[in-house]
Batch of 2 targets.
Target 1
Amino acid sequence: MTDLAIAAVGAYAPHDRLPAAAVREALGRFEAAGVERTAVPAVDEDALTMAHEAAERALTAAAIDRSTLTRLAVATTTPPVDEEDLTPRLVSTLGLEPEVETGLLTGSTHAGCSALSSGLEAPGPALVIASDAPRGAPDDAIDHAGGAGAVAFVLAPEGGASVVDQHTVTNAYPGTRFRARGDAEPTGLGITAYDRQAFAETIGATADGVETDEVDAVAVQAPDGKRPYRAAGRLGVGTDAIQRCATVHELGDTGAASALLSLAVALEDGAERVLVAGYGSGAVATTMVVARDETVEVDLDLDAGEELTYTQALRRRGTLSSGEPAGGGAYVSIPTWRRSLPQRHRLEAGVCPDCAAVTFPPEGVCDGCGDLVTFTVHPLPGTGTVEAVTTIQQGGAPPEFVDQQARSGPYQSAIVSFDAPGGETVSIPAQVVGEVAVGDRVETVIRRIYAQEDVIRYGFKIRRRPHERTRT
Amino acid sequence: MTRAYVVGAGQTPFGAFPDESYRSLFQQAYEAALESTGDRVDAIDVDEAVIGTLGVGGRQLGLSGPAVTEHVGLDGVPCSRIENACAAGGFAVRQAIQAVESGMADLVVAGGYEMMTDMGSDRTKYWLGVSGETEWERLTGTTFAGVYAQMASAYLEQYDVDTEALSRVAVKNHANGAKNPNAHLGFTCSLEDAEGGAPVADPLSLYHCCPTSDGAAVVLIASEKFVSAYDGDAVAVLGVGAGSDSVGLADRDTYTAIPASERAARTAYERAKVTPEALDLAEVHDCFAIAELLAYEDLGFCDRGAAPSLLEAGETDLDGSLPVNPSGGLKSKGHPIGATGTGQVVEVFKQLTGRAGDRQVADATRALTHNVGGSGGAAVVHIFERGGRA
């Protein structure tokens, strides 16, 4: 086995929740057994932005030198585009070295376990992320269960939790859950007994190869809130151990992140020996035994925030809006956009060699002395103070943001005085996640800024720093 | 250096005109300008033309100057288009004055036009923000309402005033515009109306925002030589100043002033050898209510932070000590981008030659115009004086 072990875990789930009762009230039924509520991504969130959030937490918790990472493995069944590797953008937003090996694993909810296996085989420290937000047709059980969340693991030789046992089994079972070529949403044939059998039989077969005694938590793939418990008998574990770290009841089905999010919760809860059981339709399953010997740094943000109505949830997913309006006018080409990625992803600013003033973006004359200089480029820490803010109401959004506004309502645009090296500050405009007021302390967060010509453009926005408010 | 004079000025009504084109509007304004001279000026006298337009809608982005001057028979006359966003018209006037003062021309047509209401609201949105800083500012989801709202939020916070200060701008300017037959929104409104408008970009609501308008305006700028042989009205250009700044608000030194306006005003006062106390009226760029308050301070009408009290005391009313925006301003008269700055000079010409009808400022001798591009990336200030012949 590998000499890498889990050194740190980060996790993130969107805070908004859609209660099962809201779906039941709207549709007269709710098909996802055992799911109380599901996490609903904001209009500017997707698998990439959630992956960034989870990874940033794990990397910060690990306090690891990011340049030492040798591999980035990312798993999702809901990549923001069907073709085009999303890992280079994560490498950029997370500030990893461009030489890091990357792998994108998709097409199966089992991809999370595959990514963890891949990370464990890396030649040196590795980052493994599973991030997902499964969605089905509105009247489908897959959709009712569909949640959102991401989990990230920093693997390092000195990690505190090792994978001590692992077993993978394939078992040809077509037609339980699949997404046809070109379709936006997975579906299934709904043959209940067949679907349950595929799950329990395949997961059960993996248990034959691993030692499940003495596990004190069991992190099982959860396409709904009942399925994982049906595997208890075949796994030889009690349902209490599954419930201890289950996330499906509060977050819904998190797809490729499902079993690993439960692992994260188990580690946070102090579990010493965790059985992880990942599953993907088709079918393939992996069990892993994770044993904690030393400390694992854990930073999870899975808290619930606002509860949405069913109408709000439908509106947010775009069912009730017609996308970006046609027009013409101001246009930022993709090559021009790409030039700004160091600023949009990592807030790289220029420090003047003559006067030490900070200029953003680091181009043109120095904001301090007004000379054309060669800047020293520094990423800013991403914290700052709101100087001016407005709420853009209906009708006030430029076309690039009309769809966003139609789906999630008014939003704020602010000017932030960002903290910079040497006690300097630099003022930069930014869109706001949530709400802020003048004087609030804020931090950056990676979100979708807008999509044009089907290309999603990611960059920083700002949100209020928890528990930190000052007035200037 | 020869002095420049305004010898004629005319405009179309500002508003929404689905039966007109940008060329037909320009023609109306040009004919109105010629008519204002008592037909003492003829196309044959024109040496040069400078046309301000942004090109909203993309109808004629290239050669959009000659496209209108040839339509009125000025083909053959050197013609340039000036683009400085909402200050395009004001800068066209400045360019015409430069041509005259340099001795290059004796009579210059300075015009401006814009068609803004002949598009669907989606397409209009694309064009409204094109003069903001595109890569960073716009992509936080703002158009100009948002950027001026950020200035307003900073101003209200800094001076601890409430939105009534903004609403009073609307009340005053609508009262004036109601007396202007060329105004787009020529109705009065109460403080309650203005306070109760639909939110646009907090703290700005509907009555704190100017409309988008169709319109054209033309002024005739002449040399001393021309005026010496001319028996019509002539208004002297006492001074011109202009300034520029960062296009994006976040890059500026302050959010509660428009430094380009300050610079433009300082230069204009120096060249005119007058102080703000010498002015009898001003047409200022009130695209959003906060812009008029900032203008009072940037142009030296009052100290920093004192604009709300100056306004509330009635000093800038039509019968106050310094009437501001007797035309109704952008708020009521309208804002056809390229025509706005030129239109301000049309109003001043009318005021200084006693032709302003119900909104005439008594004994108006000296007047200032103030035209801002974008949220303050460019600004131009002109000071004029009645008669003033050398």
Target 2
Amino acid sequence: MLEIRWHGRGGQGSVTAAEILATAAINEGKFSQAFAAFGPERRGAPVLAFTRINDNEILLRTQIYEPDVVVVLDHHLSERDDISEGLKKGGILVLNSVYEPERYAKKIPNARRVATVDATGIAIKELGTPVTNTAILGALVKATGIVKLGSVEDVIRERFKTFAEKNIAAVRAAFAQTKIFEREGNM
Amino acid sequence: MKRVGLSGNYAVAYAVKMADVDVVAAYPITPQTTIVEKLSEFVANGELEAEYINVESEHSAMSACVGASLTGARVFTATSSQGLAYMHEVLFMASGLRTPIVMANVNRALSAPLNIWNDHSDAMAERDAGWIQLWVTSAQEAFDATLEAFKIAEDVLLPVMVNLDGYILSHTYEPVVLPDESLVREFVPSRPLQNRVSPKFAYSIGVVGPPEAYYEMKYQVVDAIEKSRKKIKDVDKEFGDKFGREYNFVNEYMMEDADYALVTMGALTGTAKAVASGLRKEGEKVGVLSIRCFRPFPKEEIVALLGDLKGVGVVDRAVTPGGPSNPLFADIATTLYEKGRRPLLQSFVAGLGGRDVPVDDFKLMFGLVKDVVKEGKSRPCVYVGLRE
């Protein structure tokens, strides 16, 4: 089973991203759950969301404490929160950041793979607004291969209707521009 | 038939749409809101031909449902927590007037302090309202139970409450198999109900029941919910034949040769099963029994499945302050005591106000059940996950 924790801010669409990923996995025939640690919803406040993906039925109904993958939609959160808390040894980190992945790899020894992409820049260019949730999905797919890019695009098409094509363009741009650092040797 | 990703709340909304309800009267409240939001969308875009009544409170929502149901309409509403509490007096009228209303209750803690997260205190406070109560453990079950609820309600002329845990089920996206709408209509066909009010057939409803009449009329509700057991079983069997999924009154997991078990309701069940499965691999003979139908209470099944165990832990997600025990524990203990069966019972409370109940808490509960059996004496209620 793959467990993903999403760090974002209210209004960035982290919960929607978690749901799109789960739906893409379900449409591929897998089992998946997407849920959030809901609080009083406020724009800009830190938000946690979660996705589980598995080949068999998922029984667990708890929050995720030891994720395989951490996704960060706002890199400022990486200075405020311990985004690597509980990250499994050999885990994957995906960040919306203009910096090189090595910058984060140095700080987070548990991560085998670190991916960064300027999702904010891509979102502003493709959507005209800094909502980074769809762009970050492109980076996540590139870094994990957990679902096919086409499956994500299909869910976006179904869910967004009018703005679907612009969001798909953001996903594709992020997929193409994601930079990946891979740690060598045993962990 | 198609397999899609849906939240528990949307699964309920799709079931209500496919059951072709006539009237929805509701007032929004977190975490129920997305059910009626989706239904209003279905009504607005023409996918569901129904009267959607906007009301100013839950008290009015349930009142409108009672009135609509008395005309023979198929009626649905949804609520949570304070909303359910605000319906309180009308809930008893709904059962007393024998209106087959179906309501989704998305379980949420009661104030104070104000809390929008999950526990079971809202439904437990309405335990004695004369409603059938079903409890689900997944979005698929939420969909399925909602369909069964319409059929059960209309056959036994009692209202049915479908309980799903706030957020943990209501807002979690997961796989749901949606059957073809035509098959659903075959399962819950619209049908004329007897003795319903209409302009041509007007009569008084809800008049005074003096001491000469009230007792008998109340007993009719007691009798009806007792007798509903057979109907609930039949409906579930028919559902299974048609859609390939059956639930029964309880859901048993690894209970065949179990020495110890936890009894759960709702979303706690999944994690309990995952932990039981892990403990089995370590050679522990543990199982999980989840109560799907809380009213009427599955007495026969409880005695058959728990009567001969060494130890049973009962996990309540609600409390009865000052009471001898918490609501689910009380029902389990009473049921076994009546039949003279005495496995050692240990009471637990967990997950109030949305507190997560992680894997370690379930390991602790299974372990404690084994310990108290060894000690030969149960301990006072253990409040799992409570900070001291």
